[in-house]
Amino acid sequence: MKVVEVAAGLVYREGRYLIARRNPGVHLAGFWEFPGGKRESGETLEECLQRELFEELGIRIDEPTPFQSIRHEYAEKTVELHFFHCRIQSGQATAIDCAEIRWVLPQELSNFEFPPADRPIIEALLRQSME
Residue 82 and residue 20: Cα distance in Å, rounded? Predict the structure, then answer.
């Protein structure tokens, strides 16, 4: 089974996280996610995240800080998700390559439907926000 490596950004601003809804017609269409994408050959995970956030949202981020990695097996593929904390350095987040975006408080994350692989991250962010 092929393993797909993905870098995802926990983009944080004024107490809220940026989430994006997946486009229709793609794997896990309609689900909400932390923005990011597949790592290309020769790219570091940090470079992948910076490229994907610029392509999908039109933003440049500061140096991403590793948070947590999760391996999840779907019927058709295995994904290895690498989550990074980051902040916007320049640009205004816009839904360029996603259906829509929202800025939500950590306790609001559970109101949105995320893929199963993202649930442990949401739980960790909730725990952090209560500390």
Answer: 17
**What is this structure's pTM?**
0.92
The candidate with the shortest Cα–Cα distance to 83, out of 42, 32, 117, is 117
Half-sphere CA count of 53, side-chain side, radius 13 A: 32
Model confidence over 9-56: pLDDT tens digits?
Answer: 999 999 999 999 999 988 788 999 999 999 999 999 999 999 999 999
Contact (CB, 8 A) for 20 and 100: yes
Task: Provide the CA 80 distance to its chain's centre, in angstroms.
Answer: 12
Report the distance separating Cα 54 and Cα 51, nearest Å: 5
Per-residue pLDDT tens digits for 83-94: 999 999 999 999
- pLDDT tier, 76 (very low <50, low <70, confident <90, very high otherwise): confident
CB atoms within 10 A of CB 41: 4
- Alpha-carbon distance of 125 to 105, in angstroms, equals 10
Fold of 3-130: Nucleoside Triphosphate Pyrophosphohydrolase (3.90.79)
Name residue 37's beta-bridge partners: 7
